[in-house]
Amino acid sequence: MNSQEATQLRSELLNVAQNWRSEDKPTQPTDIFFPPAHVRALALDRPLVIGMRGAGKSFWSEALTTESLRPALSKVVKGFDKLRFVGSVRWDVDALSTRLPDRTLLEKLQDSLEPRVLWLALVLNELRSLCEARGVVIGMPDPTSDGGWTEALRWADRNPDALIRSLEQINLALSQSGEVALVVFDALDRMQGRLAHSVDYLRGLLQLLLDARQLKGLRLKVFLREDMTNMPSVLSFPDASKLVNEAVHLKWTREDIYALHWHKLAQGSKGFQKLLSDTFGPPQPQLSDGFWHEVLVQSPPDAGKLTELLKLLAPPYMGSSPTKGHVYTWWYKHLADGKDRVSPRTFAASLKEALQASQKPNSTSVLMPADIQHGVRAASDARVEELKEDYFWVGTALAAFNERLTPITVKEIYGVWSVGVDGTPTPRLISEQCSAKSVFVPWDEGDRFTSNSQKLQDTLVGLGILILRDEDSRLDMPDIYRLGYRIRKRGGVSPRR
Q1: What is the DSSP string of 52-99?
Q2: Are residues 288 and 72 in contact, defined by beta-carbon separation less than 8 angstroms?
Q3: pLDDT of residue 192
Q4: Where are the domains of the chain?
Q5: 276-300 exposure pattern, b = at least 16 Cβ within 10 A, e = fewer
Q6: What angle do CA 300, 305, 307 make, to 5 degrees?
Q7: Pairing between strand 467-469 and 488-489?
Q8: Sign of torsion, CA 382 483 444 427?
Q9: Is 23 in a helix, a strand, or coil?
Q10: How far apart are CA 248 and CA 252, in angstroms?
Q11: How far apart are CA 282 and CA 303, in angstroms?
């Protein structure tokens, strides 16, 4: 590839990447990419789906509830041809919408309305039109009437058995005709502004999910952020472990991540399509709109071919020799958290910034190592901003690493945490901050056998923010967080100043 061809292709790819948005919703079949683990997550007999932020929970929730995309899903997921109705309970809709009860009403009813009854009412209301079409009577007032959700939920509280009877009847009608209705739950962390007040509701939903596993005509599917299933009080009901053990985790392998983004780039770049065809042969026959090449959509992806493709865009090494790292493995490794996970959102941010930084007219490569490093720093900044939204207290905990080089001994960090700020130990300060914000403390405060510093350490390791090394004697931090928090590492990529 000469410099003119590299410049043209880089411009095309940047134009495609700049139009990506982290909140993009699928609107056509070319938007949908099927990693093997995600196909299992869509299965009708898998009611609980767990994933880190940016792993695709809302994407799949939207895909499931978009009728025009159902034929594409039916080609991949067993049983989707039997779906006759898909409804959703999502709190990421317009805050002024009356489709769901608002936060104020939920807080008002918190102490009087049994959580399980709330979910039964929401499911039944979502199925209202289907019930009416099948002759199933719903006694609960329609929330769109004058009484709104207040009257509907008061009726549900007084008549829980009537709710159950209606759901049993619609399940029977559907199962007898060999049909299925699905109700999808998502964005549950937004159902109230304060997570601590949502724990009872969340536990009630998971109880309902467990009870509904045996239904044939009515299926429920819940998308949950991973930390929401780590709270002991959420799972404090009989057989909760069965539900969690059978849950599907939205995981992306390194090859999945590369294949997804090359597939997305190929949809908008004729130059990239030509590069793929010239190198690996023609694309698959046009079974649907878009550009579908076997190298990008085969399952599982071929690491060798994906590596070869990246070498056509960038030099093979991050420096002059393999000792500096192979670009293919280095890029993913430096975007991964402490559990070796990279979300599509993170890689997309890195790729977009790397392409933007690579605008060098005389280069024969589309991407250069220094620009990939720049992309990693930018992705880290974005990931840290997301982290602040979900776990505001992490910055308080990681302040102990300021002005220190990682990795750091566990003993040293515990010493800093024990002194804390103005004499208040860091774990206690975080607990006080959570109480002030009415947010759930991220560890079990009832555990009297584990030190508070270890609880904090275990929580951060569990979230993939810290890594234990050298027989658990030192704490390290993955670059995806370290760079965004401006923490230095011996021999590592330097943070922005």
Answers
A1: -TTSSHHHHHHHHH-GGGHHHHHTTSTTGGGEEEEEEEETTS-TT-SS
A2: yes
A3: 55
A4: 3-16+253-388, 36-249, 393-475
A5: beeebeebeeeeeebbbbebbeeee
A6: 105
A7: unpaired
A8: negative
A9: coil
A10: 12
A11: 19
Cβ partners under 8 Å of residue 258, min gap 6: 301, 306, 309, 310, 328, 332
Bridge partners (DSSP) listed for residue 346: none
Candidates 383, 407, 389, 416; CA nearest to 485 is: 383
CA pair distance 174, 178, nearest whole angstrom: 6
Helix (H, G, I), strand (E, B) or coil at 178: coil
* 474-476 and 467-469 beta bridge pairing: antiparallel
Say if residues 123 and 204 touch (Cβ distance below 8 Å). no
CATH topology of domain 36-249: Rossmann fold (3.40.50)
Signed CA dihedral, 33, 35, 36, 37: sign only: negative
Tell me how far apart the alpha carbons of residues 121 and 213 are, in angstroms, rounded to a whole number: 18
Pairing of strands 83-90, 248-249: unpaired
Mean pLDDT, residues 448-464 taken together: 91
Q: How far is CA 481 from CA 335, 338, 341, in A?
A: 9, 9, 12
Instruction: pLDDT band for 197, please (50, 70, 90 cuts).
Output: low
Within its chain, how far is the Cα of 363 from the centroid?
A: 36
Look at residue 213 and give its three-state secondary structure: helix
Residues in Cβ contact with 199 at an 8 Å cutoff, skipping those fewer than 6 apart: 231, 233, 234, 440
Q: Tokens 């959102």: give the residue.
A: 345
Sequence-distant (≥ 6) Cβ neighbours of residue 259 within 8 angstroms: 33, 295, 296, 297, 301, 306
pLDDT tens by residue, 69-122 = 888 888 888 888 899 999 998 876 655 456 788 777 877 777 788 889 999 999
Find the range with the poorest average confidence among 73-87, 232-246, 247-261: 232-246
Buried b (16+ CB within 10 A) or exposed e, 320-358: eeeeebbbbebbbbbbbbbeebbbbbbbbbbbbbbbbbb
pLDDT, averaged across the chain: 88
Q: What angle do CA 186, 189, 192 make, to 5 degrees?
A: 115
Phi, psi of 249 (to 5 degrees): -100, 130
pLDDT for the residue numbered 370: 93
Question: How far is the C-alpha of 108 from the C-alpha of 476, rounded, in Å?
Answer: 44
| Residue of 154, 165, 82 lying closest to 112 (CA atoms) | 154
